[in-house]
Amino acid sequence: QVQLQESGGGSVQSGGSLRLSCVASGDGYNSDYSMGWLRQAPGKPLQGIAGIDSKGVPNYANFVNGRFTISRGNAKNTLWLQMDALKPEDSAMYYCAAHPKYSHHNELLAFGYRGQGTQVTVSS
Question: Which residues have C-beta within 8 Å of that of residue 90, sequence separation ≥ 6?
């Protein structure tokens, strides 16, 4: 099994920044896993944000437009999402995702393990 625990969500004003964290654990997890971030706003479908493979190569959804940065720790079980220039439309539940093979954010959305999420609220 793979467990993913997110943290770092909160409330911030438009234009502000937040840094989300995720820690992966469990007997099924190893450093070859790719990881990523997803989000879901109320009434909207789950959306892929970014993914990163075991070598640290990232990929981003078009809407990110340079505002978010995904990274992972040397031990490969810690993941971060630095979010800058936040907008009210970024308000959502943010989820960490992981998969042993797929690293693209849309593949992680479809096939990845997922955590319980951390809430991000951006006020105007």
Answer: 39, 83, 120, 122
d(CA 81, CA 34): 14
Q: How far is CA 44 from its chain centroid?
A: 17
Looking at the predicted structure, is the pLDDT value of residue 76 above 90?
no
Residue 104 CB: number of other CB atoms within 10 A? 17
- In sequence order, the 6+-apart residues with CB closer than 8 A to the CB of 123 are 11, 12, 13, 14, 88
- Helical ranges in the chain per DSSP H: 105-111
pLDDT band at 26 (very low <50, low <70, confident <90, very high): very high
CA dihedral 44, 102, 52, 81 (to 10 degrees): 30
